[in-house]
């Protein structure tokens, strides 16, 4: 039974081993590697789903398996599978490094899976670093100009700095409570939070995950990494990695739930700055990925609205939004990958004529973009409204007003994408042929964007029973 | 409010018919032009038929909410799927049915990206139906946004005259309105303590005065943008001019009513004290809109701009009626929403036909157009007469009711409105004269007049205008069944 508790992690550990052996081959077999990796990742997703309702503790209570962690594990496995799906051709990465690409994505997923189950400070830190180091390698993997090196170094430095902040915060918490177990720390928090040390400790401890979520002031890496990394790697960073970050922010922020006003106020400020800054700067971007990077900063601000409510519905809506964001952002990145077949950085203007080149892709794009902009009937609209609702329930009227105004601002740059894809004629560009798996993927994503947007009850209820374990 | 459950999901069918239609369209090929048009027409036709059915089948003696369907949707957030029909939304559902059906017929000749066009149009109309029938604020807002956003694509691809600018301006204005509406809705939701989006249940809650004042003004401004309330109307003439014919019909005819209906249904219904507090401002803005629309409209030479500004002034009449908060005023306002909707649809439909052939909408260039296309011109002239408030047309009764109420409650503003409407009517007749009864432009002499098939949608619209002009009691009697309890509830 214990094995089953650790099921998804074990599976992905074995998958990493298989991929490791692939990477030892002298002559690369690109097609086989891709097929095997994709199929195995698909099975991994099924394994994660099968273990959805497992419950229990492992490793001296440092590792908890509950619905909360299992939902995120399934989401991570799904994210990995989807990224593998669109990695059929990886022009941006040298052929002999393809196996490494799969390997490090898998170890990163493994790290994040362990992360969402960790309930002990050191375990959290070790898992976080496992996933971060994989990404530090993946970002500069792109061949060609030096932009990838700049991105890689920026990512590493800012990641290291935020890790430093986080360790410092953890040390405060440990020093004040004499325990590294969250279960022991939480009951001692109310009394601790009265003094500055507790508040500072929790805020700094969150830094590592604010970095991953690209919340202000740890957002500086996002535009450069998005632009400089290989498209597929960025897709992973923008989807799965964000979901894991949301999980941990939820877990750690629960420490400050009892602090009431001060802590929530700090998060309110971060949320407002993140969404406003992200949306305003995104307006002037010409590069599609850079624009998406700034939009991700804005979305991090939205997610914080659910976190700072510190209520069951607030946490549930944050989970809903994290899952929604995974789907809708992936949809946009998938289109980006298909259009930029040669692995280049896509300008927004280069989407011109997409409607003629591939009606299906342009439909996916318009749905994905509208979902990001929070237009109904999409998963993004429902998610955003639920976040706003839970923030309003706690009386954050101004925050909701600013959030809603931000929604309008963001629509401007999202519409520019729709404008380019639907209206600007492409100059004799060839049609984009889609293989049947990617066509199926398109339909599945479109269906889930609308389906879960109109019928959110199932996921909301699932998320609600999941957060009971965290709060 | 008493609720009578439906024995058959009529309203859901009305709502889903366009959805099913557009889903079928997704799988049709662009080349199958006739099939695409037929599917759209059937989808619109089913909704139209059901809207007539609910209008006629509504039991006036029973009153209350009828054809109700209610299902729990998201329990954790108190969201229910709750639709129904009462006296004030039955005419608007009918209006939507009329306009979408005639709209599809009007766009029969479209050649460019036909499939997509009808997909977006059906999506838009789903939203419109949804808003008019929803009694749950979540769904209300969801449908509201569905109705607004497809406009961007519709204007951008099939529009004319500065369409890129118009599409962006329109969308951003309306979304900025949404940005005010969301906090308003959520403030009511959370401060009620019930954590429900159900409007009927929220109506029973006594909100504290400051919440009512704040929420009302947020919603009034937010929905007012769509209702074309002066000074937030500037997107509307530009947008109407740029939009393709059927979209102008839907937009000026139906979409703007979403705004004023929402002010009535959500803002006034849930925040009566807030309404009392802001009523003077509403009346002032509405009266200004009436005067402004009339006079700016006079200076225009493009027929679509003339109609666009006349919409601003006619929607001002709706706003003025709402601001009075009296039985006559609200009756007239709802009646005016219906009458103006049909009338504007006819206006745009007639202009669209002329523009498709001559590629001009310039008053002086058209000259004596009635000698070239007598039937097409007759459609426009009928609409113009209706707009001028000629007795025997539906608008006459609506405007009469509103103006009587307005003079009683806000005498000065009411008189200003009446005066400018009279002047407006005089000038409208001059527009008609310049456009249709001058010397004909020799460039257009070879054009053929409207064929009976293409004339059909316009005939339907004229039929409704005259029917309700001759039998206003059918409409007023129905609207009254919901306005009377509405005012008692305030």
Brief synopsis:
The complex is a heterodimer of chains A (471) and B (490). Chain A is an all-alpha fold and 471 residues long.
Kindly describe this structure:
- The complex is a heterodimer of chains A (471) and B (490).
- Chain A is mainly α and 471 residues long.
- Chain A has a domain of 211 residues.
- Chain A is built from 21 helices and two strands.
- In chain A, strands 1-2 form a two-stranded antiparallel sheet.
- Chain A starts with a helix and ends with a helix.
- The mean pLDDT of chain A is 87.
- Chain B is mainly alpha-helical and 490 residues long.
- Chain B has one domain.
- Chain B is 74% helix and 4% strand.
- Chain B is built from 20 helices and three strands.
- Chain B has a three-stranded mixed beta sheet with strand order 1-2-3.
- In chain B, a hairpin with a 4-residue loop joins strand 2 and strand 3.
- Chain B: This is NADH-quinone oxidoreductase subunit M.
- Chain B: Pfam families: Proton_antipo_M (PF00361).
- Chain B: It is a multi-pass membrane protein.
- Chain B: GO terms for molecular function: NADH dehydrogenase (ubiquinone) activity; NADH dehydrogenase activity; ubiquinone binding.
- Chain B: Belongs to the complex I subunit 4 family.
H and E string of chain A: HHHEEHHHHHHHHHHHHHHHHHH
Shape of chain A: globular
Oligomer: heterodimer
Q: Which segments of chain A are poorly predicted (pLDDT under 50) over 5 or more consecutive residues?
A: none
Spatial separation of the terminal alpha carbons of chain A: 27 Å
Main sheet of chain A?
A: 2 strands, antiparallel
Mean pLDDT of chain B: 87
Radius of gyration of chain A: 21 Å
| Low-pLDDT segments, ≥5 res of chain B | none
The separation of the N and C termini of chain B measures 13 Å
Series of H and E elements of chain B = EHHEEHHHHHHHHHHHHHHHHHH
